[in-house]
Amino acid sequence: MINKLCDKIKKTNAPIVVGLDPMLSYIPEHITKKAYEQFGETLEGAAEAIWQYNKGIIDATYDLIPAVKPQIAMYEQFGVPGLIAFKKTVDYCHEKDLIVIGDVKRGDIGSTSAAYATAHVGKITVGSRTYVPFAEDFATVNPYLGTDGIKPFVDVCKEEKKGLFILVKTSNPSSGEFQDRLIMPEKEGETARPLYELVGEMVDRWGSDCMGDSYSYIGAVVGATYPEMGKVLRKIMPKSFILVPGYGAQGGKGKDLVHFFNEDGLGAIVNSSRGIIAAYKQDIYKDQGITPENYADASRMAVIDMQKDIAGALGL
Predict the structure, then answer these.
(1) Which of 4, 105, 281, 286 is catalytic?
(2) Catalytic residue status for 105
(3) How remote is the C-alpha of 205 from its chain's centroid?
(4) Would the pTM count as exceeding 0.85?
């Protein structure tokens, strides 16, 4: 799957992933009204509104981008109907030949971790039949439990030729409370270093025997809001793809992204969520005639603007 991701980035010239992280406050009234007329003001009604909203955005952007990243919590909050909307979204994205990064941030040990991996990037056998539960192409994983929590995911990814993005340096303001803590050296004469560097080294090690043509199946999450740290981690993980959140609404700009990429112009894919899916709320697009009824046109405009910003920063 990492080879397909690289090929699609080259084809679109857009190292962009659209975060499909819907909230009811984002969804235009004409969509929620129709969903509630059909299902009532229920969890089923909310899930239908989310699904229809996603579908509009996917239809407007799929030819411009290589990948999407649905955040499962935005669906789980609506219970089982929300998870059905999540699955519909994943399947529809695959119909459009998009790569799906399941932003699930799972992390546990042993059989529990293996079950999470099966659910999101693997297969399960029931009697004489085999099923693919959620069928994402990549999953995000929390490494806090160490190798015991990562290895079951790696094993499934090897078997299915799918991939992981492991949290290394996240974009949120309080990430430094743990991730920036200095770790004492194991050998005399070495200097202390931040925890995120150690996690980056582990990602590089975990990915060393999970290689595609040029990059590993095992990647990392490093926030756009920390460009200098991204520069260091790019050197630590030369063969790992970096998923870069924090662009746009969280403050990251194209100029912040240069060092996340390798000299081949690959090695990173940048996420924008509400900056794209709720773009119709922004004055810059309202001034171009966007209304809630044609919200998806604003999402397309936002993807094009993001592509230009990144290409300009990278000199492409």
Answers:
(1) 105
(2) yes
(3) 22
(4) yes
